[in-house]
Specification:
The complex is a heterodimer of chains A (about 325) and B (about 180). Chain A is an all-alpha fold. Chain A has a single domain, classed as Formate dehydrogenase/DMSO reductase domain (Formate dehydrogenase/DMSO reductase fold, Up-down Bundle), CATH 1.20.1630. Chain B has 6 helices and 10 strands; from the N terminus they run βαββαββαββααβαββ. In chain B, the strands form 4 sheets. A 4-stranded mixed sheet of chain B has the order 8-1-10-9. The longest helix of chain B is centred in the first third of the chain and has 9 residues. The chains are: A mainly alpha (about 325), B alpha+beta (about 180). At the A-B interface, β1 and α4 of A face β2, α2, α3 and β6 of B. β1 of chain A pairs antiparallel with β2 of chain B.
Chain lengths: ~325, ~180
Amino acid sequence: MKEEIFVSGRNIPNVDPFLHIWHWQIPLYLFLGGLAAGIMFFASLYTILGKEKEMPTTIKWATFLVPVALVLGLFALFLDLKHQWYFWRLYLTIRLESPMSWGAWVLMLITPLSMMWVSSYIKELFPKWDWKFEILNKFEKLIIEYRKPLAWVLLILSVILGIYTGILLSAFNARPLWNTAILGPLFLVSGLSTGAAAIMWMSKSHFERSFMSKVDLILIGIELFFIIHLFMGFMASTAVQINAAELFLGGQFTVSFWVFVVILGLVFPAILEILELRGYKIPVAIPALLILFGGLMFRFIMVEAGQITRYLY
Amino acid sequence: MRYAMAIDTKKCVGCSDCVVACQTENNVPHGYCRDWVVEVMDGTYPSLELEIRSERCNHCDNSPCVRCCPTGASHYEMGGIVTVTHNECIGCGACIESCPYDARYSHPDGYVDKCTFCLHRVEKGEKPACVSVCPTNCMYFGDLDDPGSDVSVALKNRKHKTLAPEAGTNPHIFYLI
């Protein structure tokens, strides 16, 4: 038996006995960022594919959520900072080895671009809207004319937004639960799935709803595949990773993860969506809400559990 | 020039003078510490092994904390000493998450803080506070690139180890075993 103790009485706040530097603000931002990335991805994808008529909610109305989610997410991040009034330092440099730096810049680009996207559709929602300044009218015409290039830029930025949060966590080799390459793709697919669920919920057209629910089913399938491989990867890895995985395979996060994230957040909504596609009447709010809830719980559990896993002691 | 420390675990008695000296020298806030003492008991009675280690930031070569800092506040100073520029730090906590040795903490003033190898003393040619104050003289500080320095001589003559080498950080604190 090996026993290691601090004899000098170390008890640093938020570090001992377990690391707990990141609190609720970070998983909330991860969820909002993934949701925004998902909605924006589908909006730009289907614009590029020319489906504006068949999928109005995807391309126009659901995107109104994107700037709101991004601003709320950025505010959550700002609240998490402990040296808040120096936040502008993030924008004086780009550090290519730091995924947090990429994220700061991607958010800096995608937030105004998504606001531009939404502003070009405002007149369809409020026909009497008046920009009041001629330059804004010209700007709106420019956006509408260059919508396809804007959609390509937003497509790429939304993929980066969706995947960088997973890459950021996986870059911390000190936290064995996070230090796996599959986390980036897993966060991306989870974000896309929450975006598809939100679009499905908001849509008024039967075609669009059933189309997005088929897309969502594929994404849920991929996400389940990634989760299984996440754990297979941990169990086939080093001792610290096996210890990290054991938190979810019998440890303190077993019930919350497998019940709230996998069963309630992925498997059960998938079954409901399949039943709906087969003809049973299921209120769309139920699978959509469960998927959103599952995405939020996934991020809360991963951030808390990851900080508990470690190399030493 | 690569600064490193060698700590003789056979001579350390766990008195924690190094902890108190560091807190005094660096005005560490109450309740926080930049270095700490760990006691390891291994085995089953009666064949037990005891090791006492004074641990701190390892000022790694391949430090994940410098790599993941989004503003460049965490950086290398002379001799590979890792420090934090207080007014560039935004307090995001990424470096704290990335350290396998849990060496960093969030200072109440907002920025992230940790052992600095007493850079302000080393610049003047003195030793870090913890090394200077150790009553058993079990701590050595010096330049690894200088074959005549205390550290180089200690490492040449004794078996040594580092903590969590599998984390890939190339730490600069060597424990003489």
